[in-house]
Amino acid sequence: MSDRKYRQRGYQDEGKPRGPKGPAAPRPPKERTPGRVLQDAAGPKTPNLMAAREVFRCARCGHLLSLEVAHDSRCSRCSVDLHSCVQCMAFDTSARWECTQNAALPARVSPKDEHNACTLFVPRTTVERQTTSPAASGSGDASGTSSARRAFDDLFK
Fold first, then answer.
1. pTM, rounded to two decimals
2. Residues with Cβ within 8 Å of residue 87, at least 6 apart in sequence
3. What is the DSSP letter of 119?
4. Whole-angstrom Cα distance, residue 117 to residue 84?
5. Could you give the CA distance from residue 156 to residue 95 in angstroms, rounded to a whole number?
């Protein structure tokens, strides 16, 4: 009877040499087939990235507005004052007096969504991906459909 518990052949076989193997022989280089090109000679291709743009949106309704905010300007859609704390870059509800520039503020400004004369006002801008081309967005289509939607609809005419 064998001194091993299991009778299967495996890593404990006596016939195999133990220890590190000798240096491996260098492999011959693989020959490439002429029809297949793995990579362009100029290098890897860059992905097609969408353009980005900086926009200013109304904090209440999300309407796209111009980046220059006059002292007495209002949103054209919801008529909220644009020179207010909720539209400012420094507005933060977790900060003291809900402003990150509170060291320069003598007192809390309230209410936050009404017009104020704060000298620290900077419009809150965000960087968005530009998903439409400038030519397609200015096409002036009355129904507001995109060119892709029009192309899809044209398939069934």
1. 0.49
2. 58, 59, 69, 81, 121, 123, 124
3. T
4. 8
5. 56
CA 16 → CA 7, 8, 13, 91, 100, distances in Å?
A: 16, 15, 6, 73, 72
d(CA 68, CA 56): 9
Closest CA to 106 of 87, 122, 119: 119
DSSP 56-107: EE-TTT--EE-S---TT-B-TTT--BSSSGGGBTTB-TTSGGGBTTTTS-SS
Question: Rounded CA gap, 146 and 132, in Å?
Answer: 9
Per-residue pLDDT of the chain (157 residues; tens, 9 = 90+): 556 676 676 666 666 565 667 777 788 777 766 666 666 666 666 667 777 888 888 888 888 888 888 888 888 888 888 888 888 888 888 888 888 887 777 778 788 888 888 888 888 888 888 776 655 444 454 455 578 888 888 888 7
Q: What is the CA radius of gyration of the chain?
A: 34
Residue type, 107: A
